[in-house]
Amino acid sequence: MKETSIQECEEYLAPAEAFSTIANETRLAILEALWTAPERPVTFSDLRRSVGMRDSAQFNYHLGKLTGHFITKTEGGYDFRHAGQKVVRAVLEGSFNEDPELPPFGISGACTECGAGLQAAYADEQITIDCTACGRIHSRYSFPPGGLNDRTREEVMDAFNQRVRHLHCLAADGVCPECNGKMGTTLRRAEDEGTAELCVEHRCAQCDHRIHSTAGLKLLDHSDVVTFHRTHGIDLCATPYWEFAWCVSDVHTTILSADPWSIRVTIPLDDEELRVTMDGDLTVTDVETFPTGTPADSRTTA
Prior knowledge:
The protein is α+β, with helices and mostly antiparallel strands. 27% of the residues lie in helices and 28% in strands. It is built from 8 helices and 13 strands. The chain has a 4-stranded antiparallel beta sheet, covered by helices on one side. It has a 4-stranded antiparallel beta sheet with strand order 10-11-12-13, with helices on one face. A 3-stranded antiparallel beta sheet has the order 7-8-9, covered by helices on one side. The longest helix is centred in the middle third of the chain and has 20 residues, at 153-172.
């Protein structure tokens, strides 16, 4: 990945200047007024009235500082540019000015290690799911503070489930969920971390955002996997991903080959199991259904 400084900017507004531009209560009020307007674009007079500033010249000065970078002027008035919307959304999600916590509370599912119940907790803008008995961590991903607003704990976990699914869907498809840059996928054995598990890393070449996961998370929206669960009476899309051992653990994942990469995720249900083979990009290359307990062929030797 090319190493560049976030300060480097030759054609556009320099980052330091951009942040200093919005570090003003009046300018933030203008962005808020634009955000809450029933319709856009908004005329100069309506925008000034909404902000509550009587001095037209002073208001025009602050508006001018935002125009061209955070908002745009049209024939009908003023409207957002993408950067302006990002500023408002960042404030609304609470990443700049909130730091809430939620103590551990029980959730659905059982530990893939010992079978005990699971609990979730919120701290440092992350939700962590772990076992109430052995402490095994089943999931830990970011969740903006704004996602807690006006939601019960059950609703928070439902939103978290959908968010994680969405993040991994984008990442596995090569799109960074943070900046929309190109995201690549790499696999490696986790032997250097004291385990024999497989590490999957999605990394953005533009902003260096990284997401780590199991291989199974890639299969949550795969048509064959969804159909297999449906035939067994399970709605895969409506069930939290942490309730599936193949999503939160590598106990059902087998490394068939590391050069080139070939891995198999085995999904057992009742008296059947679905064996899904993927390559190094987590692209599905083969799907087979067998009766539970059918011996694996010779390719399953790592």
